[in-house]
Write the structure tokens for this entry.
Amino acid sequence: MKNQEIAKFFYDIARFLEIDGVAFKPYAYQRAAASLEGLKDDVSKIYIKGGRKALEEIEGIGKAMSDHIEEYLKTGKIKLHEEFKKSLPVDMDALLKVEGLGPKKIKVLYQKLGIRNLKDLEKAVKKHEVAPLFGFGEKTEKNIVQGLEFVKQNKGRSLLQDIMPVARDVLKKLEGLKEVERASLAGSLRRRKETIGDVDFLVVSGNPAKVMDFFVSLPGVKKVWGKGNTKSSVHMAAGFDMDLRVVPQKSYGAALQYFTGSQAHNIVTRKMAIDKGLKLSEYGVFRGAKMIAGKTEEEVYKAIGLPYIEPELREDAGEVDVALEGKLPKLIQLKDIKGDLHCHSNWNGGQHSIEVMAKTAMERGYQYIGISDHSKTLKIENGLDEKKLLKQHEAIQKVNKKFQDSGFKFQVLHGVEADILKDGSIDIKSEVLAQLDYVIASVHLNTKMEKKEMMARIEKAMKNPHVDIIAHPTGRIVNQRDEYQIDFDKMLSLAKETGTILEINSSARLDLRDFYIRRTKAENVKMIINTDSHHKDQMALMEYGVSQARRGWAESADIINTLPVLELLKYFK
Ligand code: DGT
Ligand code: CA
Ligand code: CA
Ligand code: ZN
């Protein structure tokens, strides 16, 4: 499908335009790109069938954008993009991964120091050449050094959200083979770790050769690391590896337990077996030469004296001791979720109308959705001011009325995702905040503050009588950005004191992190799992917020959007 390729070009062009300081236009390209990404049909088919007219009917695509699309479909190029690229021939994607570097700074680095890629950048900061540049300084150079370190650390690990759909697709194909009796994900993917080193599959089959033949010739396989009767490994064009192991039925549970890991958890379980005079391996649980368990994971755990432990808990984080006491948490499940309160509509940077977002929530089986568009400070997202928020309030009431008249038991709540300004105040007037069902507050700008200042800022926001939820509380983005300078204990005690809810953001942020979730639960501070959807399809990301919550040992009582709407509203000020 050409949609992704063209979207990528549009995002690039938007960046170049930003560098040149062109107002508004970058947004048009970003919007067009997002629209193409969300499109179900292939844009080249749309064009062949309906021509220019059909292109211009796509949401967010006007005349200028369809010019570009047509050009790309005819020539495989977009001239504007080529020109920009020639003026700034750098590895923009790689450099942008370094926190503290935006497109404008990257241009200066290229023009002044000839920096084209991460290697060049590393050399330059080592020689201390960056700090003296106009607009940079010591602090920025220090941030770049830290950013580079972060990029290096995370190299080679892929985002759970990116890998899971691909892995599920392969799993489905494996399950579809007549030679395959059972198949499962294993490894970090089954534990739903936020980043994945490689993908592990486990299969039961009486005819491994056939399964391996199929596996190594899957579409997207670029290189075969190895192919045997029990194990094969491949490298995918998308940049990650996949392992497949074939085991006999009688060892399936033991193998699943072993290859799910984590390695640290396995060391503990193996030691437990030894203490009982048993041997635990990927083949089964043995007393001497006699196999006493192995077919299911339940039976394997039981044989070594443990109840079943959910994969998300298997990190040697105390789960075995707690299991021995019979006190394992009853983890929250996706089906417990009754609504999503952090959703954006096309009133600001989102792609769809309030009604479309609401209908999607209904299709997911939710009882409510909360629309929480950005506030005015966030100009790149077309944030709403007081006047627009009040108008939106009416629009939401209209949608609710419509649903009511059609007999739907579903409610659209009205919130806002308001910016926490540098001094901790909220950028929307209190009278207006008071009219909304709930208020989410977020730090988006001025994120490089010292810890004391940042905590004072968050304290003031939490003490604001209208603020109910802090979104993405620590500011981290997986593989992209570390958290702000925060004191999490302080954040928890403030949340407790003020009754503020902390968000688990299901997007690429996955913020809160799992260990913070566990601490939040321990302090009995409530959380909410939201998707931060800017597109209706992103509401499906809820499962990753839920798995993150599970990795943080959360139960449904810890998460307020497992409650019916009237109970939920009691948590808001
Ligand atoms: P990853 O791929 O880095 O995200 O993490 P995992 O956990 O998927 O690790 P991977 O793919 O190397 O191995 C899958 C599982 O197999 C791992 O979680 C535990 C098990 N395993 C692999 N090698 C060893 C080992 O040397 N000792 C033990 N106890 N378990 C191992
Ligand atoms: Ca793995
Ligand atoms: Ca592996
Ligand atoms: Zn948001």
